[in-house]
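Troubleshooting: if your tokenizer reports a length mismatch, compare your output against this known-good record of 261 residues.
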Amino acid sequence: KALDRNSKAADYKRAIDAWLTPLPQGVEANWVIGNHDKHRAASRLGPQRGDLINILIQTLPGVAITYMGEELVMENVHLTWEETVDPQACNTHDPVNYEGSSRDPARTPFPWDDTKNGGFSTANTTWLPAGDQYKTVNVKAQEEAQNSHLKIFRKLTTIRKQPVFRQGSYDGKLLADENVYAYKRQDGNNIAIVVLNFGTSTQTVNLKATWSTIPDEMKVYTSSLNSKLTNGQNLMTTSIEIMSDNGIVLLSSGVSAVYSF
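Known-good structure output:
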């Protein structure tokens, strides 16, 4: 509840540590960023952080729960007072300020393609209108793109099957004047490091100075859409440059990975 589009790396780490630290041994955490009762994660936390947020919840220890549309970094759909059907909003009897109470903006039809109603229905009308966002934000467009939010999400759900994420240890740190939240997941000699820049500018971090036993080089498994990084490329862990509102997943050579979809 305390996180919003202005939250910083320290805010995220504090919220995560507050959940992980008191967990009894053998108990799994679960991570839920969005659901049908909340406005969409991209609208609440910032669409520019969409991939970063998906990287975060898919690589933390525990269970990741994704609400439909978050894999596309889908935002709220604006609905007029006349289109609103959520009792929580309608019962305000306030045609001016109803949007703050309405859960409808996150409940609109799932966008499969750019056809009528986003390919969700061929009906003239749906319970809630699809809006216009589906014309560009839809599954078909993101499947056909060379890279996309959806393809990044699929890579994340694939790598979650590896032991380093299923059972690996977690060690989280704040770096770069607390603009960057980074954490190491480790299972034996297999290591993954996630680097998340919540700052407003590009940051350079020395991961080797933080975790001295990690490899000198690690491979980029996936990163935010505009990261300018290539899947599979090697980065020196003494100097990782990461753009603002971006996330990177790095793997040691022992972690089995698929670098393209």
